[in-house]
Structures are given as C-alpha cells and as structure tokens.
Amino acid sequence: MSCPHCGQPLPEDRSSRTCPHCGGDLNAPGSPVMDEVADTAQKAADSAGRAVQDVLDDPRLRERLPGGSLPLLGSGLVAAAVVVPVLPFVAGGLGLPWSALMLVGAGMLGAREWVAAGRTLPPALVPVVKWAAHPAFLPMFTALTVTQAFLSLGLGVAPLLWLLAAVVLASVQWRAFKASSLAELSLTRRPADVRLKRWVFAGVAACAVGLLLPWSSAWSLVPTAHLQRERNITIDDNFGWDIQDNDTWKFNTLVLPAAGRGAGTGRGRLGATGVVLGLLALGVLGSVRRAREALPSVVPAVLAGLITVWALTGLSSRPGPWLFLLGILAVDVAVAREWLGPRSAAPPAEPPASA
Length: 355
Known about the structure:
The protein is mostly helical. It has helices at residues 32-56, 59-62, 70-83, 96-116, 126-132, 137-151, 157-178, 181-187, 191-212, 272-287, 289-293, 298-312, 319-344, and strands at 219-235, 241-257.
C-alpha cells in the first residue's frame, strides 16, 4: 500500500493516520482502486525490470559486444528487424519509408557505438558519428523503436526482433534517466505530481489496450471490374447479316483479409504511428516535471487534443475505439488540470513596498 498523496510506500504495521513521508491524512477521500492498481503495476514493472537488467548485465553477453555496448546490440536488432521481412517467408515489413528511416538510424547508432568502442571507421562516416552523438538522437531513436515494436506486436520473427530491440534500447534510456538530474527532480513527489502521473499513465495504458482491440472488420472489400463483350448478329431476308459488338464493364466486390500490420485494430489506422509517439510524449511529460515545465502549456493540450480528434474519427461499434476514447479523455482531464489550470491563473500581485 502506498500513500494516496505522495505515492511513497507505507509501512505494513502502521498505526498513525498520517503518512510518515508527507504528513497527509491516510483516511482522506481518495481513489483506493487506482492506488491498488498503481501498486500492482509498480511491483510488476519492478520485477520485469530487474529480470531484464539481470539478462543485459550478464558478463557472457557483454563480453561478446564491442566495448560491451548495449546500444550497439539494439541497433543490430533494429537492422535485423527491418531486413528480415525482405525474405519471402517472413512477414511484418514496415513499408519503404519507415524501413529506410529505421535502417539509417540503426546505422548511425551503430557507427557511433563502434567508434566509442575504440574501432575505426572510414573518414566519410565521421560526420554521421557526430550527428548520432547529439543528446537527442538516442532518445528519439528509442521512441521510434518502441513505437514500431508496439505496432508490430504479434507472432513471428520480425515482431520478436522489434520487441527485443525496444527492450534493450529502453533499458539503456532508463539507466541514463536514473543517472541524470531529471530523476532526482522526479523523485521529489508532490501530491499534484503523483495525481497527474497516475491519471496520465492510466489513460495511456487504456489507449494502448484500445489500439490492440478491433476497430473495424478484419476483412476488406476489394472492388474489381472486368470487360464483358456482347455480340448481336442480325440476319436480313437476303441472308445478309450484321454483327454488333457491345463492350460493357461489369463490377464486382471481393472480400479479402485486410493486409498490413494490425489489420482491423487501431494499429492499422492511418496515423497510428504518430498517435503512439504522441502517447509516449504525454507519458514522459506526465512523469518528468522538468520536461513539462520546459514546454509551453499549449503543447501538451494541443497534442492531447489532436489524439482525441483522431479517436473520435474512428468510432465504431467495436470495443477498441471506445476504450481508446476513454483513455485519452482521462489524459485530457489531467492535461487540463495540470497545464491549463495552474498556469492560466495569473500570480497575485505583490503589495508595494513601503517607503
């Protein structure tokens, strides 16, 4: 059990009505259901994180990597996930634009880590290493990898490679975050920060589940047409004949399984990649106070609003869009309370100093 105000774990043999961390009233009205869900999710995430870290920290794995670089492993997994669907018996391709982008990003990251491990590259690739050394490159590439892994969830070789690449790169980013000053600022929990984080995380989780559920039929209607020729032969009294050919188009509709990643689900809709990236951005803003303080208050509101419009345009009788809409509305409420509420009110004017 954790405190509903600050989120810190409470002692099991507690006898006081107040939290030993923040002094909040433990019997005050709150959300015990959300508190229990948050505790369960936190414990599951901690257990999974420890298991992943144990595997990635295994010396038998590190000694096989140049310089023990996990980002180099992640870039190799991304490149393999892009190239493997080229084989005729493997499905799960991204399409040419995204495949080219992810392959270029994987090459840039691999070149950077190759040089960091003390290896040499041709002089023509030196600018590539400098671009990949930018502090924003690895977080952006990790976000794209996590997005592609989520959109490719399924059975097969390519989805497995995307999942492994996302786990490796996300673990690297998590370690970098914990070692930075952003983590120290995020650990100073205020009641408002805990409430915002829970609302945003609950909404984003509902949106993610909604994207996995059906949004439309898993079958698509494919219109087809064929040319049909009708010949009319007319015979007169003198045994002469006249031949007339009438060409007409006949239309038909074939029902075929929908093609593409996440066919029939929210992941198969147009713009799903941008929506998943937006949800990741909202999750980061809900967790890191310095990140949301660095942005204008209108940015999260516009981002959440665009995702809400995307959800409204995909409503149907299926369960997926309604669960997604419920989740993004929860995020809208959190955004309105955190970004538009406190910042919209002007601070009280200071009284004039007496002479």
